[in-house]
Amino acid sequence: MTSTRRRARGRLPVVLVLPAVVGLAFLLVPLVGLLVRAPWDTLPEQLFSSSVGEALRLSLVCASLATVVCLVLGVPLAWLLARGDVPGRGVLRALVTVPLVLPPVVGGVALLFVLGRRGLVGQYLDAWFGISLPFTTAGVVLAEAFVAMPFLVISVEGALRAADPRYEEAAATLGASRWLAFRRVTLPSILPGVVAGTVLCWARALGEFGATITFAGNFPGETTTMPLAVYLALETDPDAAIVLSVVLLLVSVGVLAALRDRWISGPS
Amino acid sequence: MTLQADLRVARGGFRLGAELAVQPGEVVALLGPNGAGKTTALRALAGLLPLTGGHIRLGGRTWDAPPDVLVPAERRPIGVVFQDYLLFAHLSALENVAFGLRARGAGRATARAEAARWLDRVGLAAHAKAKPRTLSGGQAQRVALARALATSPELLLLDEPLAALDAATRLHVRAELGHHLRDYPGHTLLVTHDPLDAMVLADRLVVLEHGEVVQEGTPTEVARRPRTSYVADLVGLNLYRGTAHGTTVSLDDGGTLTIATPASGPVHVVFPPTAVSLHPEHPTGSPRNAWRVTVAGIERHAHTTRVRLDGVPPVLADITTATVADLRLQPGDELWAAVKATETHVYPS
């Protein structure tokens, strides 16, 4: 006996289902293809080869440092946008999101012209402190932070605006300064938003390509992160490119899966 | 050390202008309908809303006196119990109570010991480790009270402290709150729209309407001699304003009433709804007020029925269920209302 599920509201319309299935395939097939093509037998060997390992380590370190920079600067910025009584808040908020839609290459060019050795700020950094940022590991961190910070700011600001400001008032009536209230009351209550923003930010930094290659160049061991290594390897050693891609894919999915249950509880 | 406040706040179309004085150990209830400015007054006293005029002084110190002085909330010796308590969800009951002590510079161990003592005083020692969301409404209210009192504030502000509780819990928590307020040596201001809370908990009532103080006095005074129809409604009395000539009062809104004791000039006349009797025909007999009325509404209470009557003047009557049956009352019925002169209470307005 074939059991047919009875539908109270008729069949799902084909005009919606068909594009939905195509869309799903469009998103998933390339990833599956990557896994199928991966040289699984030589994978461990490839993985621990010096060039892949180096790129992976550099990527993880730079993305993590960039995330720290974003947290230190981005959380206070989000607070200012959500709570601060600053004029032109709407304009500020729009400006903060510009790197979100800006092609990363443009971001890299902009960074180069500001922080480059002859740049607006860079010339003084060079002249006064002897610091030169482009084409260094620090440059990679900066480029990644530039591109990834809006993700954190938007996520944290959203959480802050959803949080009830009266709890901060309650803290104030108990004698807490605004800083103490933020630290002990507001921050714990928006922690899920901060963690979600941090994960997004870290993932974005890990995958950063355009701004990094423009601002930091491509020096193995110093600025060649995973995405850059994938791009380079594609020309010379496609197998290595696939291995690197699989690694990036697994790291991203792994992070998402690990944090999803605990922190990023979407509407179920 | 008296709390002296002349609260003036102008915000948008709303203006608050209220003078308050609270003695140490005194509980003053700020009573008024929604939108009267009660919460605005409380926020100004707490330092969460700056005054636009007037002043707030406690003892020799000025807390707010625009445009020169404004002490922020965190530097005022206050404790606030908010309407929905605003307990910090990520902290335990004990940590909530200890928060104010820590913020005011107490060491961790001292603060926790003192907080534990306060939780014990409100009967929640067993719930010290509980998170606020696991507490019942009554327990959360007690934690909020302990948190507000733990820092030994000079001014305790309570914003509708019983409004979030169900009727059964409310009775119990009200009695308990009264007990703690009597023990508290500082100044207490209680904001409420519930006359029962105000009457039971407060030493003195200040009635606020449209941002202005319309009446103040002890609960007994206010209940006996209401000055506005809002207060009369709250305490369940018929109130009329008029001009007395001997034993006759011409009411401002039409109609006349005969009173027992001669008076002259502008007066208030009050009598309880139970003093009103209803008759199908013009009543005869002893000197009494009688006038034609139309039934506008009938509400059944536990043992009586309250009848709202239109007429000159309109009046509320409480009658027994038997009378309702006798008269077969329906909205729109025409009747005679009667009130004995000796049942009226008259005082100068």
The chain pair forming the largest interface, with residue counts per chain, is: A-B, 17 and 24 residues
SSE class of chain A: mainly alpha
- Binned, the helix content of chain B reads 25-40%
What's the CATH class of the domain at 65-223 in chain A, please?
Mainly Alpha
Query: What is the end-to-end distance of chain A?
Result: 33 Å
Radius of gyration of chain A: 23 Å
Number of discrete helical segments of chain B = 9
Give the spatial strand order of the biggest sheet of chain B.
7-8-9-3-10-11
CATH topology call of the largest domain in chain B: Rossmann fold
Which structural traits does this protein have?
heterodimer; A: 268 residues; mainly alpha; MetI-like fold; globular; B: 349 residues; alpha+beta; Rossmann fold; OB fold (Dihydrolipoamide Acetyltransferase, E2P); 2 domains; six-stranded mixed beta sheet; five-stranded antiparallel beta sheet; 9 helices; 19 strands; 39% strand
Overview of this protein structure:
- The complex is a heterodimer of chains A (268) and B (349).
- In chain A, 74% of the residues lie in helices and 0% in strands.
- In chain A, helix 11 runs antiparallel to helix 14 (238-260).
- Chain A has helices at 14-37, 43-47, 50-82, 89-96, 98-101, 104-115, 122-129, 137-162, 166-173, 178-189, 191-207, 210-215, 226-236, 238-260.
- With 268 residues, chain A is mostly helical.
- Chain A is globular.
- Chain B has 349 residues and is α+β, with helices and mostly antiparallel strands.
- Chain B has 2 domains: 3-233, 3-Layer(aba) Sandwich (Rossmann fold); 236-348, OB fold (Dihydrolipoamide Acetyltransferase, E2P), CATH 2.40.50.
- Helices cover 26% and strands 39% of the residues of chain B.
- Chain B has helices at residues 38-46, 93-103, 108-121, 137-149, 167-183, 195-201, 219-224, 229-235, 321-327, and strands spanning 3-11, 14-22, 27-31, 53-58, 61-65, 69-70, 78-81, 155-159, 187-192, 204-209, 212-217, 238-251, 256-271, 276-279, 288-300, 304-311, 315-320, 334-340, 345-348.
- In chain B, a hairpin with a 2-residue loop joins strand 1 (3-11) and strand 2.
- In chain B, helix 2 runs parallel beside helix 4 (137-149) and helix 4 packs parallel to helix 5.
- Chain B is elongated and about 80 Å long.
- The two termini of chain B are 32 Å apart.
- The A-B interface holds A 164, 166-167, 169-177, 180, 184-185, 188-189 and B 46-48, 72-76, 78-80, 82, 86, 88-90, 99-100, 103-104, 147-148, 151, 157.
